């Protein structure tokens, strides 16, 4: 199938994934849910490698939502353990491969042990050609709220005026403000919602939904999603005719 040159020119710098389907993957195999989560962790390396091969600068993974605390305590404990082990095991490897680690979200409810592991991982893998962002105890509503509160505090203190609270100002204090704008948001597992993930950032992101459960979503599936993205026409409020004219003049 031929690709329209306007569509194929889509730059892809930032991908985010809602990694859904771990529990269902385990249930289909008669196993405990934690088995699915472990299998899901193993998929991260494949997907990250595929993203890097396709020139993606930033990959954000929805590891644990602010609503996930409502899950059974044993599952929450197991997920926190997997998160801790991943950071301890992978931070140095990622740093050696030129990948930085960032963790975004509300850290107030994490244990001291996990907080220490997060800080250590971010220190070890502090810079690189690409960035892996792990969203943990994260919610899009929380992200917008913390940005607005930060601006409100500055306004109350007289450091800024109300007129300074603009769309750009709010965006500058969103947790991913130092990263490229979000281009592609993927959800695995056959569900069609974004579940309070990167709400501000997803305003103009392309959405891609896969029927594959997360432990089944490998590097090939990742590249299929990227190929689909590159066939799309991103208009940002313009018409297709406008984009065609701009491309002809370029």
From TrEMBL:
UniProt remark on cofactor binding: Binds 2 magnesium ions per subunit.
CDD domains, alphabetized: Cis_IPPS (cd00475)
Keywords of the record: Cell shape, Cell wall biogenesis/degradation, Magnesium, Metal-binding, Peptidoglycan synthesis, Transferase
InterPro entries per the UniProt record, alphabetical: UPP_synth-like (IPR001441), UPP_synth-like_CS (IPR018520), UPP_synth-like_sf (IPR036424)
Record GO biological process: cell wall organization; peptidoglycan biosynthetic process; polyprenol biosynthetic process; regulation of cell shape
GO molecular function: ditrans,polycis-undecaprenyl-diphosphate synthase [(2E,6E)-farnesyl-diphosphate specific] activity; magnesium ion binding
Entry-linked Pfam families: Prenyltransf (PF01255)
GO cellular component, one term: cytosol
EC number: 2.5.1.31
Domain of life: Bacteria
Top-tier EC class: transferase
Active site: 20, 68 (proton acceptor)
Cofactors required: Mg(2+)
Keyword Metal-binding: yes
Catalysis: reaction(s): 8 isopentenyl diphosphate + (2E,6E)-farnesyl diphosphate = di-trans,octa-cis-undecaprenyl diphosphate + 8 diphosphate
Cross-referenced SUPFAM superfamilies: Undecaprenyl diphosphate synthase
Binding site for Mg(2+): 20, 206
Residues holding substrate: 21-25, 37, 65-67, 69, 71, 187, 193-195
Gene3D superfamilies: Decaprenyl diphosphate synthase-like (3.40.1180.10)
Stated role: Catalyzes the sequential condensation of isopentenyl diphosphate (IPP) with (2E,6E)-farnesyl diphosphate (E,E-FPP) to yield (2Z,6Z,10Z,14Z,18Z,22Z,26Z,30Z,34E,38E)-undecaprenyl diphosphate (di-trans,octa-cis-UPP). UPP is the precursor of glycosyl carrier lipid in the biosynthesis of bacterial cell wall polysaccharide components such as peptidoglycan and lipopolysaccharide.
Quaternary assembly: Homodimer.
Protein family membership: Belongs to the UPP synthase family.
Protein name, per record: Ditrans,polycis-undecaprenyl-diphosphate synthase ((2E,6E)-farnesyl-diphosphate specific)
UniProt gene name: uppS
């Amino acid at each position: 199938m031929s690709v329209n040159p306007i569509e194929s020119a889509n730059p892809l710098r930032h991908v985010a994934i809602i990694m859904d389907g771990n529990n269902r993957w385990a249930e289909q195999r008669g196993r405990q849910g934690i088995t699915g989560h472990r299998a899901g962790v193993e998929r991260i390396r494949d997907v990250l490698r595929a993203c890097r091969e396709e020139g993606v600068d930033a990959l954000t993974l929805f590891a644990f939502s602010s609503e996930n605390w409502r899950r059974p305590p044993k599952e929450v404990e197991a997920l926190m353990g997997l998160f801790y082990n991943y950071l301890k095991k992978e931070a140095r490897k990622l740093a050696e491969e030129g990948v930085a680690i960032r963790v975004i979200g509300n850290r107030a409810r994490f244990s001291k042990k996990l907080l220490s592991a997060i800080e250590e991982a971010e220190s070890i893998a502090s810079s690189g050609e690409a960035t892996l962002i792990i969203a943990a105890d994260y919610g899009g509503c929380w992200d917008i709220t913390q940005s607005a509160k930060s601006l409100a505090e500055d306004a109350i203190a007289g450091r800024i005026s109300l007129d300074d609270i603009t769309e750009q100002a709010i965006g500058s204090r969103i947790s991913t403000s130092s990263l490229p704008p979000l281009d592609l948001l993927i959800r695995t597992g056959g569900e069609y919602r974004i579940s309070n993930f990167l709400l501000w950032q997803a305003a103009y992101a392309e959405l891609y939904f896969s029927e594959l459960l997360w432990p089944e979503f490998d590097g090939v599936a990742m590249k299929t999603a990227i190929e689909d993205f590159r066939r799309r026409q991103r208009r940002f409020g313009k018409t297709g005719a406008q984009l065609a004219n701009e491309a002809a003049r370029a």
